[in-house]
Amino acid sequence: MYAESDFVALSALQHYIFCPRQCALIHLEQVWSENQYTAEGRQMHERADSAVTSYREGVKVTRSVALRSFALGVSGVADVVEWHRRKGGLDPFPVEYKRGKPKKHDADKVQLCAQAMCLEEMRSCTILSGALFYGQTMHRLDVVFDEALRSKTVAAANGVHELFASGVTSPPEFGKKCRQCSLIDSCMPNVVDRSRSAGRYVRKLYSELSEEEM
Predict the structure, then answer these.
(1) Local confidence pLDDT in tens for the 214 residues of the chain
(2) What is the CA radius of gyration of the chain?
(3) Which of 92, 159, 202, 208 measures 20 to 30 Å from 130, CA to CA?
(4) Are the CB atoms for 190 and 174 separated by under 8 Å?
């Protein structure tokens, strides 16, 4: 169990699975840059996160639902939680909105699973599945929260906590995923000195400039 003061952003798990260096740059070094993909994703989330409750076909739909888990040590907001009527009450069904299309890696699924695990802890229930809605395909991808995905989610949460505790940004590993990353210009995965993080480089440069002015 984690203390509330040790909570990390739930979205950090998605960043960590995609790339530990990206996770550190965003959450440790506060580096962020917008591109076409992040802008489209932000607009999608703004439409989903209207905080308006609605009803359709007997399903209650809540938006911008605050989440937290002491077991994972995370907090965040779910885009949408649908409440499906079942025998004995309403079952939560988390839905996460993504701008692109289904991916080969499990980063999005881990983020959604973490949302489900937060809801389970908060409501003392069991959630079997949820869905990822992709803007490019305009379709949902159903996600089953099996033991393998739950274990990967727990491992990702622990990995993020260890990363933040170390304060060390991972060295870059250039690959195909780098080309669509909004941080590619800050990360410089194919040219940066692998012994230094972007933040340390900027701090060193600032220190050298300050010394010259003295």
Answers:
(1) 899 999 999 999 999 999 999 999 999 998 876 544 555 555 555 555 556 788 888 899 999 999 999 999 999 999 999 999 887 788 999 999 998 899 889 999 999 999 999 999 999 999 999 999 999 899 999 999 999 999 999 999 999 999 999 999 988 888 888 887 888 888 888 764 444 455 555 555 556 555 555 4
(2) 19
(3) 159
(4) yes
Closest to 200 (Cα-Cα) out of 28, 18, 27, 20: 28
User: What is the signed CA dihedral for 90, 127, 66, 153, rounded to 10 degrees?
Assistant: 180
Residues in CB range of 174: below 8 A, 6 or more apart:
189, 190
CA-based diameter of the chain, in Å? 74
- The domains located in the chain, with CATH, are 4-213 (3.90.320.10)
* pTM, entire model: 0.79
CA 94 and chain centroid, separation: 14
Backbone angles phi, psi at 71, to 5 degrees: -70, -40
Which one-letter DSSP state was computed for residue 206? H
Q: Enter the tokens of residue 34.
A: 């917008």
